[in-house]
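Quick note —
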Amino acid sequence: MSAIAYLDHAATTPPDPRVIAEMTAVLSAGGANPAAIHAAGRATAARIEAARADVAALVGAAPRDVVFTSGATEANNLAILGHAQAWAATQGRPGHLVSLATEHKSVLAPLRKLKAQGWRVTLLQPAPDGRLEAAALAGVIEPDTALVSLLWVNNETGVRQDVPALLAVCHAHGVAAHVDAAQAAGKEPAFVAGIDYLVFTAHKLGGPQGIGALVVAPPRRAQLSPQIVGGGQERGLRSGTPAEHQIAGFAAACRIASREGPAEAARLGALRDRLWEGLSDLPGAELNGHATERVCGILNVTFTGIEGESLYAGLQEVAVSPGSACDSASGEPSFVLRAMGRDREAAQSSLRFSLGRTSTVADIHLAIAAVRREHARLHALSPARPPPIEDWAAADARIVKGEAGAARTGTWVRWLWRIEGDAIAEARWQAYGCPAVLAALPHVAARLPGVRADAPLPGSPAEWLEAVNSPVEKLGRMLIIEDAARAAMAAWSAR
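Predicted structure written out below.
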């Protein structure tokens, strides 16, 4: 990661060297199954329990209430599905569940599964700043509401919910509260008091991937149905032989966060603010989420008028996310930003910068320079700019124009051709589009000189796609290049 500025810590943090050392020592020493009753097994069990105490201490929990899982996704599933199944078994029917439309998909997916099983699910829309008002939550709780599920800090925008106020609503109605604190633990003063199910994970705070925790309030332990059964480990709530080295790494990361968290949060907050200062004056730059109620290390910015995929692809020296790391491969605009009121174009034109322990001032300066460079490049091609034909106009050249598509649909192309005699002498273009479009346009433009109005275009959309080595899914965008060229041909023929 030394070759680039790694600003994607909200997706995963590089393990702290001290965590790696702890895990290496455990692996090198060998170990035993903690379920074994011999001395080696008892020693392993004791080390795991000591680690459990360190993990619990980060959020003010009792060690006996910590259930180790494979990560936050499993912990969220255990909390939501386990609680719902136990509730339905007691009541003899499904009930009602409440969450927020901007929750992590490891919350939304279990809720969809339960909805298919007959549960009623209310997904509240946040305010445009991403926050949920306590009154809005209170207004949807029903007599059979079984669980309210909330994200402490949003993984895309960094927006911090007012957890104490929302918990007060749950308590007033006697409803269980589940809180995903994956992006809060170790960065915010996260706590477990008053929360029935609290989730966090190691790899968001400098620990290893593959290990997380669900903190279960004692009164709820008997009301939770395990989702993984077998050997009855983790007090019967999550079977499977514990991974001692991962647990040790998790504990080390929690100890470091407990000691260094406040100072680190202040440092990251200053870096985040410096990053925003370096980007905020760019045309169309808008901060996503609440201006102050947000975690120290996450900055989400919309660059209105700039095609997001092309901006992201141009940042070769900076690792950032075009959206949620769990969903970035889909190419779809962020559902979190859409739920906050951003239209499709604005949501698609956003980047998430997330800082962590390895982030430096040099990383911030590199990111600012890279974004400003790519923003200038793409802004010069955008519909917001006048056509780049000043020299042609001054020379009183014959010019034809043709355009197709729209920025709101993801692709817009304008052709500008200078005509000499009965043929194209030079072709220029403007575009709002993905990297495939921006790569294909100069390829086509280089082949247009010499083409006459009654001649076919050079090549086909399929050939252009192959020439720039783009996937077949981009063929529709090549058709827009062709449509714009045909519009230019029609304008030329009409003269």
